[in-house]
Amino acid sequence: MPVPTRLFVEGRFIGYKRSKVKQRTQWALLNIDGVASKEEAVWYQGKYAAYVYKALTKKGKEKMTKRVIWGKVCRPHGNKGVVRARFKRNLPSQAMVGTPLHKSISCLGVPSSSPLLSAESWVLSGWDLPNG
Amino acid sequence: MDGGGGPAGVSATGKGATKRQWYPTEHEAAPPKARRRYTQRALRPSITPGTVLILLAGKHKGRRVVFLKQLQPSGMLLVTGPFRVNGVPARRVHPRLVIATSTKVDLGGVALDVFTDEYFRAVKPDAKKKKKKRSQEDFFEVADEEEKKEFKPEYYENNKKLDAQIVPKLDAEMKGYLKSTFTLKSGDRPHLMKF
Q: Is B105 within 8 Å of B148 (Cβ atoms)?
């Protein structure tokens, strides 16, 4: 039986890469817990990020209503440890901190040069959503 | 017939025609590009035989296991719990799905020749079974059979033999360590941790 373990670090989606009036939704900015500087953020470069959320109904062959949008941490953003990430499908703006439905982003310790983990195998292995 | 099929644009002038309207630019077909084939996969220096690794994905994620050797040419790592200690059998693991710790176990002279890539290759279900015509009774039976995954009996034996060689080399502290699982708690910062 898999022992419940947490092997990901939580983070928050604080917004898209943007200028004053225009936002580039293909780039998400993530604030990873405990990362306070550009140098620390470099460790996360290349690691997988996952936005896990619940849907109301199961679609088709899904085994549960938890869904994942996979992404990769690309590079640091600024000096304070914020990080840029690209997701397979751009993150929905609902996921942003400050909105009522926001959820944590999970930053996995697994580098994205590894074989892609299937969402189901990850989510089904007794791993709970970070925010419950 | 006459000189076979020529390239498009050749005027069919019949007997002994040597002149062509169009000549290909290359004399011969270009050789197919040589594909990079790995015979030896590199391994990061922090992983040496006997290193304790933390598995990051799969059924045993969070478990601490002992690295035995790297299998070639796949480059996968052969690891074991050992099974008797923490329930991880001799298994292949992708090198990128693992954290190498600085803890090492002295393996010295453990026999690992049985374990190769071929040994771990999944046994494909019998092709004949699928094509078999199903009668009414068969229809219900076949579903049950395919559910249980069975391993070859050698798997169990080889695991036991491997454990018998490795477990005596572990002291109580090491066994306790391998039994424990790695997990992040709130406030933990893996990027600052020394593994």
A: no
